[in-house]
Amino acid sequence: RSMFGKYVSPEVVSQMMDNPPELGGIDRELTVFFSDIRGFTSLSETLTPQELVKHLNEYLSAMTDIILDTGGTLDKYVGDEIMCFWGAPLDVPDHARRACQCALLQRKRLAELNAAWPEERRLAIGIGINTGIMTVGNMGSAGRMNYTLMGDNVNLGARLEGTNKVYGTMIIVSEYTYAQVKDEFIFRELDTIRVKGKNRPVVIYELVDERA
Fold first, then answer.
1. What are the φ and ψ backbone dihedral angles of 210, each rounded to 5 degrees?
2. Handedness of CA 42, 46, 50, 51 (dihedral sign)
3. pTM above 0.85, yes or no
4. Residue 129 dihedral angles phi and psi, to the nearest 5°
5. Which neighbouring-strand residues pair with 74?
6. How many CB atoms are located within 10 Å of the residue 100 CB?
């Protein structure tokens, strides 16, 4: 309970107590989500370290609340980057839908935050989402474990986040995520690309909005 309380909502932890996750890694279809602040280095040069920490924590708190509210699992923060996923430790069949919903809610919440911040502190982010078979579990050592993901499909999600810079978009999903949620959301097909480390080209889409 203590360990997973840092990653998932209290409701999820309560359910997990009846079905504890397996130690080590298991392969499962999941949806991974990466987000990153654009121009973070430039922003950090205009603020004192204390101001930067306070500003970043306000942003990360708001985004993390949405991740947990949609049933996601927080993997880690890497500076201003957030990595999270849906589908583990609890098996939720609509993990792709939840990830897309989270991205749209974060876009809306960020717009609200930016409206309240002075212009020089406003943030822009990029989000990459991918669905596929990934290895999830407790990895590391007996003294320091991390509940995290590994695999090619995780790497693809990370690459898609950075690809937003090329297309001037905010949210990019892979064809694999798109295939599961195309009837529930509006997408714009962007391109067919081959990301670093992948031989097979991938069709990518911009997530625009919910159909409703």
1. -80, 145
2. negative
3. yes
4. -130, 135
5. 84
6. 30
